[in-house]
Structures are given as structure tokens and as C-alpha cells.
Amino acid sequence: MPAELETVERVRRIDVDQYRYGFETKIESEKAPKGLSEDIVRFISAKKDEPEWMLQWRLDAYRRWLTMTEPNWARVDYPKIDYQDVYYYSAPKQKKALASLDEVDPEILKTYEKLGIPLREVEALEGVVRPEGERRVAVDAVFDSVSVATTFQAELKKAGVIFMPISHALREHPDLVRKYLGTVVPTSDNFFATLNSAVFSDGSFVYVPPGVRCPMELSTYFRINERNTGQFERTLIIADKGAYVSYLEGCTAPQRDENQLHAAVVELIAHDDAEIKYSTVQNWYPGNSEGKGGVYNFVTKRGDCRGRNSKISWTQVETGSAITWKYPSCILRGDNSRGEFYSIAISNGFQQVDSGTKMIHLGKNTTSRIISKGIAAGRSQNTYRGLVSAHRKATGARNFTACDSLLIGDKCGAHTVPYVEAKNSSALFEHEATTSKISEDVLFYCVQRGLSQEEAVGLVVNGFVRDVLQQLPMEFAVEAQKLISISLEGSVG
Amino acid sequence: MSALLEVRNLQVRVEEREILHGLSLTVNKGEVHAIMGPNGSGKSTLSHVIAGKPGYEVTGGEILFKGEDLLEMSPDERAAKGVFLAFQYPVEIPGVATMTFLRTALNAQRKARGESEYSTPDFLKKVRAVAASLNIPQEMLRRGVNVGFSGGEKKRNEVLQMGLFEPSLCILDEMDSGLDIDALRIAADGVNALRSSERAMVVITHYQRLLNYIVPDFVHVMSKGRVVKSGGKELALELEEKGYAQFEEQAA
């Protein structure tokens, strides 16, 4: 059944105030004291039982962070963040180390159930035989700062794939982590990435060995639960020579009056002939209809196409957060490597989105493709900011960029800020951009055929973002479509 | 028995300017009415107000459809009740496959009427049958709604929807605009196939030409926001011969 129909059927009359994922889980948590200092960094590192080099790495980052200033070039406006008024570590309180999922606090499991995450491997445990070809998803779930469960471990292990919380990887595969951590986003990269380097508490680690095609989609769900808690996760994915992996992250947070801080770092490394497909469905709490509350999302995501013929593809569906500051980028270092960025960014209410990508062409005959769809409704501001650059030696570099913006109503704004730099004459860059308003005539046509006003908007917007949705793994495309319709509810009429 | 559509003394304004000054029209089941008139006489306004397009202010009169107050209903409710407007310029909806659009709309109407939604096989069977009768290839149904369609294809898509939704009142707004004779004939054949004793049609046009293909039972001449003359199909021929000028004087 066409997914558009599915979306339209599920549209319900709720407005932006009724954020679907805005429930809070009542569990005891163990928090570090508020604020940031060397002691807090040491506390986090000790909690994680980290090797000495990791502590030093964090401390270096912390000391550097003290000398940095918060960037202000993005088209977002928010009150000054008091970094001493944030909890940098919060873990669900546990009495002992966990041996299996059964020991996870049932309250946390219930939260994930509400989010619709197939956390339990019930079927596998019960020995249920699945139909041939049915795809499964391995999930790592991160609750506030700590990873609570990773599924399908055994099966992944058989394939040689390492997929575990980065805190475990630091203990079980310290050499791998040390070899790659910070090589794409160095600790000195930017204010938020440096902060993350100092205080990150968990995240996912993936290593796919040479020639291995990861047998299932890997997925991480992030959830901020505690009040005034920052979530600083760190994800590191390495596809060794000829490997392939598809990874998806999903994010939610409870509904709160105050703003929650989120500053993640994601590093991807693709060696020769390897491919990484990274998809995000971001649905952090966007704040209420008066612009109160919501998540501040300052994220640094970067992929390094380190080897020849490597490929990194970012797909993002961004519907949440009060502030989004996010530019998933590709460094096209290997000759013939390819970078892709497919983005749907939807803003409603008082949301502010400043998002885009950087495609840095360093190797010969490198190619990149950027398809960005921005949809602004309500009183939101939606900016695409992108950089495409070709190094002097990047002969034959090619880029195609298409940025389309759709406006719903007359109190929102869409902005496109593309930077293009070619330092050699053989580079070929194409840029297309359109801005349109959702037309009254189109809406009237749809309602004349029996669709409600909101179904009509959902249908038109789903059509607008179709080429990007097609890039998402099947399982998530339907979910993303629902999310798009839900996030636009209350934007018309 | 009450009429299918009863327009009584309808007065409509657009941005402070009155376009319809007390228009009345009665349409019964099974009848085909042609509304003719020069540009600016209010023909399209009438069709838009019946369908519920925003931007028009009804300052007087009423419209009853199957005995109910049509002006109280939202446009999608009117569609579910059986009002269909074939657009003069059907819009394009990029990225939404025609097939998806048809199914979404049909099921939305059925749901609003409390009927069960069509299953995929039943829907496909139905849409294929209607499409075949209109010479619409399957390939066209996979394309985005009206995207890259020729003028003739767009109008055929309108007639296809008419056949699929089975409305009780079809309003055809300038169906002949932008069509060559062959395309017009195909579209008109499609419309004629949908004539039935249970369905009424209101055909809005400038030219008598269309009425050679869709032969009306009644012809109304509009001028300056009123119906100034009504008659049988021969009235259209008289107009063709003498033009609208005589009626403009009457209306003034």
C-alpha cells in the first residue's frame, strides 16, 4: 500500500502542543552534580571505567573548550546558555551490572515500548522462525547518558560486526577506538564538538570488518529524560575495506518547559570501496506553541571517505528541536569517492533550523550530491547552509545541489546560504534552488476531491519530499512520513 | 420531490466587489444545464461558490443541495456529498502519483459517508475499468498528478475522477479551454458516458462548440452576475449567431 495513504490515514487532529513522545519515565537516576569542571570530566571518565589515555583526551578537550567561544554565525536566536546549569551525567540508577535485558528497569523498557522500539529479542529467544528475507534491525538504546541495551549482539558477532555502546568498546576494543576517535572531528573542531569530547557519556560504536556486508540495519535510539540534562553522545562508525553498513538513529525527548541541551558528535570512516549509509529521524521536543521549551540541538556530524571508491550517504528527516544547528558533511579524500546528503527539515511553531552540509572534495574524480527540502510553517525560520569546495588537486570533482523550500502560511521564513569554492578549473558544480509557497489552488483542488485541509497539506508535502524519503531504509520511510504529517498539524486553517 | 441543486437569489462578493447579484438556478437529477456568458459574467464564480472555494463572500441567498444547506458545509464535505468540480486549469501535484491521489481521495470520500474503504485489488480493478473507457494508459496513472500532462490529458484525468467518484452533481468549468478538436471529442465522449438519470451536470462554457458534443437539456445565459435568459439547446445556437451583446444590454 502506498505509504502516502498510510500517512494521510493516520493524521490526527493534534497541534504542536501535543507532542506524541512527551511522556516522562519515572525512574531513579544517578546524576553527577550540576555544572562543568575538571572534576566532572574525571567523574564521567571514572564512571565509565575508562583507560587513562581517554581521561587525558577528555581533559585536553575540556581545557581547550574553556578557551573557545560559542559560534554565532547561524541564523538562530536563543537566550545565552548557562553551561554551569546543566547536568553533564545522568544514568538510570542500577544496583548491579546487567547480564541480560531482563535486568533492565521495566520502566525504561516501557518507555521504549511506547516509542515503538523492538528492544526485546523475544522472537529470537523464543526460537520463532521468521519468514525468509524479512529484515530485522539491531538496536542500541541510549537513555539520558547511558546505553541501556543493544540487541542482536550474537548474530552480529557471527558476522564479525562490532556494534556496542562506545563505553563498552573503550574497554573491549580500546585499540580500535583509539585509532579512530577524533580523527574526523578533532577535539579542537568547534565549540560544541569540543564540549562533547570532554563530557560525552555514551553513544554507539560500529566496526564492520573488511569485505563484510552488515547483515541487518543498525539503529540507535536516543532519549533525554532527566530535567536539565545535557545529552552528549558520541557515535563512531568504521567501515573497513569493501564493507557496507546502514545505520539509523532516532531521537525523542519528553515535553518540558525548560530547554534541554543536546550536543552530539558523529564520526564516520569509510575505507577503500566501503559504504556507509547514515539515516536520522530526529524528533526532539520542539517546544510548545508559544515557543517555550524544546531541545537545543547542536550537532557535529562528519564522514571521511578515506579510501578509494568509498561512499558516505547522509539522510536526515528533521522535525523536532527548538534550535537545530547541524551540518552532516563528507570529506571526499579517497579518489573516486562519493558523498551524498539528502535532507528533509521541517519547522513549525517557533522552531529555528539552520542545517545543511559540507562536501569537501580533496581526491580526484570525487562526486557529491545534495538534495535538501526545507519546509517552514507557523512562525518558524528554516535555513539551508551548505559548502561545496574542490581542492586544487581534486581534478574532475563534481557536485549537484538542489535546494527546495516550501512555505506554509505567511509568518515563516526560508533561507538558502550556499557557499561554493572551486580551486581547480576541472571542477563542475551545479546548484539549483527553488522557493515556493504551498498554493491555495493546489489545496483547494485536493479538498474539492474530498481530502480534509490537513490531509491535503500532508499529501502535498509528502510529494514535495518524495525523492528524499526514497533514500530512507523502507522500515523508516513509513515512520518518517507519519512524522512529517504530525509535525505539520495545526499549520493550516 | 425537491431539486438536486437549488440556487436562490445568490449574492456573492470578492474583495468588496459584488460579482453575483441575485442568481437563481434549479437543477434536477438527470438534467444537463449549460451556462454561457461572456468573460466576467460570473460563470466561474458560481462554480467556485458551489464547490466552496475560499475567497468568496456570500452576502445573500442560499444554495440547497439534496435539500441541505450547502454553504454550511466545508469543501471536502460537499465533495463527499456528491459535488464534483472539473477544473478549468487542473493543478499539478509533484511527487504524488496519480494513482495514490485517486485512492486517497476516493477513500476519504467513502470514509466521510461512513462507507468502507476500498481494498487495493478492488480499487485497482475499478480505476483500470474507468481508465480503459477513457483511453487513459496505466503509465499516466503512475506519474505525478497532472505533472507533464498535456491539456487533453489533464482534462481526461478530470473526467476519470468524475467516473471514479460517481458524484451526483458535476460542474464542468470551461472544459473546452486549451483543447484541440480531437482532445475535446475524447473528453466529451467520456462525459457523455457518465450522463445518467441519477446525475446532473452543469456545463460552463464560452462557446457553443462544446455543446455540439455535450448536448444540454437547458441553456442559461449569464451577464453581469445574473441569469438573463434561459431556454432549450436552441438558445445556444442563437447565441452563436447573434453574440452576447443583446443580453448585455438587457442586464444593464
Key structural traits:
heterodimer; A: 493 residues; alpha/beta; 11-stranded mixed beta sheet; 10-stranded mixed beta sheet; 13 helices; 24% helix; globular; B: 252 residues; Rossmann fold; 10 helices
What do you see in this structure?
The complex is a heterodimer of chains A (493) and B (252). The model of chain A is unreliable at 1-18, 94-98 and 119-135 (pLDDT under 50). In chain A, helix 11 (453-464) packs across helix 13 (474-488). In chain A, strands 5, 6, 8, 10, 11, 13, 15, 16, 18, 20 and 22 form an eleven-stranded mixed sheet that branches. Chain A has helices at residues 3-10, 38-47, 52-66, 106-115, 122-126, 153-159, 166-172, 174-180, 191-199, 440-448, 453-464, 466-469, 474-488, and strands at residues 29-31, 90-92, 137-143, 146-150, 162-165, 204-208, 217-223, 234-239, 244-252, 259-262, 265-270, 275-282, 294-305, 311-318, 323-326, 329-332, 338-347, 352-361, 367-376, 381-390, 398-407, 413-422, 428-437. Chain A has one domain. In chain A, a hairpin with a 2-residue loop joins strand 3 and strand 4. Helix content of chain A is 24%, strand content 33%. Chain A is built from 13 helices and 23 strands. Chain B is α/β, with parallel strands linked by helices. Chain B has a single domain (5-251), classed as P-loop containing nucleotide triphosphate hydrolases (Rossmann fold, 3-Layer(aba) Sandwich). Chain B contains ten helices and twelve strands. A six-stranded mixed sheet of chain B has the order 6-9-10-3-11-12, sandwiched between helices. The longest helix of chain B has 15 residues, at 98-112. Chain B is globular. The mean pLDDT of chain B is 91. The interface between A and B is medium-sized, with 28 and 37 residues.
